[in-house]
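Before the break, one more example. Copy the sequence into your notebook; we will annotate it together after we see the structure.
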Amino acid sequence: MKIHFVAADAPDAQTALKVMRERHPDAGEKDCDVIVALGGDGFMLQALHRFLGRGKPIYGMNLGSVGFLMNEYREGDLEERLAQAESAQIHPLIMRAHSGEGTREARAFNEVSLLRQTRQAAKIRILVDGKPRIQELICDGIMVATPAGSTAYNLSAHGPILPIDADLLALTPISAFRPRRWHGALLSHKARVRFEILEAQKRPVSAVADDLEVRNVTSVDIAEDRSTSMTMLFDAGHSLDERILAEQFVD
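Here is what the structure looks like once it is written out:
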């Protein structure tokens, strides 16, 4: 199996990169069969974006803090682990963020989130498949999360955990003030979500797709991009769907 190694800038990850390249030939980005990413969850997201469309599966080894999207870092038995690894195919969201400066397009494997920029709460109208569902949400923000991202920011905002193979998206408010009792919704993966910013100049809002931010948006359109996918590899018995299931039973 031909391997290409990439690593985060952190000292531990760079040290691991040197060790791994001493143990295994690096086939290079073009000729490899699999990419091994050394770092944390944030670096995995960077790797997913960097290698999008290359048709290369990515196997991550954790040298960060949480490592939910990563496997345990070990220096030995890498080829055996790769040969027995279980795969998970994930699809990104595509965000089109509109502002006075035009339209920015970006993809997100975890979530697209809208966040207030000032002390003023945001006011946002929510439309699903062209139909208004909430005329005015007063909040700190709101997000649309994928199953892969449902255990990240979405979970911190008390959103639902989604099985990795669920054809669902999580629509989750962030500190909603009104409607006070609204806690979000589960949407079909085919749903098209539109957020319209009310009083946009007085209550400015930014839109973030993974790590790309667009400020002062006036509206944002979000949908799943089924034409694009990435394959992630996980150690046997520790697949992504098993991790997501186990996360729902922790204290």
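The CA atoms of residues 99 and 217 lie 4 Å apart. The helical segments are 11-23, 28-31, 41-50, 78-84, 153-156, 240-247. Try to locate both features in your own notes.
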